[in-house]
Amino acid sequence: MSNAGYSQSRIQFIPNDQPRSEQRNYSDRSLVQLIQLDFTDYTLQALDIDNNRTIIFNIPLKQRAQYKIGKTVNNPDEVQDQNGTYYLWLNAQSRAKFHEALDICFQQISLLTNGSPESPTQTPVYKSDEKSPHKYEQSRGVQPKLPTRSNENGLLIDIYQLGQNIRQGNIDEAVGLAKKLAQQNIPLQASPWNGQKEEEIIEVKVKIDSNEPRISNKYKNEMIISVYPSTTIQELCLIFEHCHNFSPLNQYFFVNGHLAHHDSTMKDLNIRSNSLFILFIIQQ
Q1: Average confidence (pLDDT) over 192-197
Q2: How does pLDDT run across 126-142, given as a tens digit for each residue?
Q3: 173 closest CA partner among 157, 162, 184, 183
Q4: Are residues 45 and 35 in contact, defined by beta-carbon separation less than 8 angstroms?
Q5: What is the pLDDT of residues 69-103, one digit of tens each?
Q6: Is the dihedral of CA 90, 94, 97, 102 positive or negative?
Q7: Where are the domains of the chain?
């Protein structure tokens, strides 16, 4: 389960076939979040922050018609529920990003339920957390060299190939890889593809250390991991969670003496071949 997007919002609920006096209003501090439970399993949830985070609604999303976007920031979005309609006045600063997450959600659902994507605003790329992998040079039929498959690298390869198959319209291959990753409990999220050029593989070193001697002693040797410029720190956290059972909440990646933020890419961090990461595991 992962949070694909969120926004603060004022919320109003108007029930079906009831007088308007029965409507309910919630403050603009209420939180609306798009939760991804599985590859094509999304739910829209709202919490009443002023009332001990009580759940206002929890609506599974199956089709785009369930959610109607308001024309402007002053016009509320509408969410249909079997008992009535929720009107959402999303926070102006987070509104556009939340709508982008919703758009990607519905494209993803359409892709795997209908066998072909809806017409997207931007071509979606599916991967383990945020930014897009690289693109094949289809005109020459050349595919980038893939790293040698190991437990960690194998997952990165599958994530990479999933993005390629979706961009190239290889639906059967994309569905197969999506199911494979989902069966391994790898959380997947979609993001727009910005048309970047093919990326080169970068081999980096990862040294695991911990405040728990048992872990430090177990992982005395450095690991060699093949990454791409667009690989994020959070992707690495997911890989080490899956392969070594380290919770992402306990993982801290350091490079050049500085803590690397989860949304940083290898390019952001100026990572080169043979760069060394220190992965520090904090055990409570």
Answers
A1: 51
A2: 343 444 333 333 333 34
A3: 162
A4: yes
A5: 999 999 999 999 888 999 999 988 889 989 988 88
A6: negative
A7: 30-114, 202-281
CATH code for 202-281? 3.10.20.90
Predicted TM-score of the model (pTM): 0.44
Rounded to whole angstroms, what are the CA distances from 229 to 155, 233, 264? Answer: 16, 11, 10
Rounded percentage of the chain residues whose pLDDT exceeds 90 = 23
Q: How far is CA 86 from the centre of its chain?
A: 26
Report helix, strand or coil for 21: helix
Amino acid at 22: E
Q: Going by C-beta distance under 8 Å and a sequence separation of 6 or more, which residues neighbour residue 261?
A: 233
Which residue spans within 49-180 are E strands per DSSP? 54-61, 67-68, 77-81, 84-90, 124-127
Contact 57, 86 (CB under 8 A): yes
